[in-house]
Amino acid sequence: SLLDRRPEESTLQLLHDNNIGVLIRGSVASGLLIDKAAKVYLNYSEQQVAKATEAVKSISHEGRTSAQTAIQFVLKNPAVTSVIVGIRTMEQLADSIQAINKPGLSEKEMTALRNSLPANFYEQHR
């Protein structure tokens, strides 16, 4: 997700280069990128999480919800073949299903999201 970009460091490109598709979970960061109150998440402060959420909301519009934007952010990576989304309501189910049919993210939008906070990297397990 926008709040957990550690796999971008080296893993996703390696998998893509070897024709291995990736199944992503956590694309909406436990709801933090859509509607939950900001809090510390991984190595990001509450303020950084709020900034990322605002970035997602700023490029979402009538034709694409924040959840759909967050899902499309991870689907934009060529290594990603599918996304697991946690669903609690019928509205969340409908919103998630429609993510694939909504306008895709432009390079300008992807850049805005990526630049909204610094990418995180694996600090442990090296």
Structure in words:
By secondary structure, this protein is mainly α. It contains 5 helices and 2 strands; from the N terminus they run H-E-H-H-E-H-H. The model has no long low-confidence stretch (mean pLDDT 92).
* Strand order in the sheet with the most strands: 1-2
Low-confidence segments, ≥5 residues, pLDDT <50?
A: none
Along the chain, the helix and strand elements come as HEHHEHH
Rg measurement, Å: 14 Å
- Envelope shape: globular
- Helix-residue proportion: 25-40%
Number of helices: 5
Architecture blueprint of SSEs:
Blueprint: H1 11-17, E1 22-25, H2 46-59, H3 66-75, E2 80-84, H4 90-98, H5 107-114
Parallel strand pairs: 1-2
Keywords summarizing the entry:
126 residues, mainly alpha
Concise summary:
The protein is mainly alpha-helical and 126 residues long. Helices cover 38% and strands 7% of the residues.
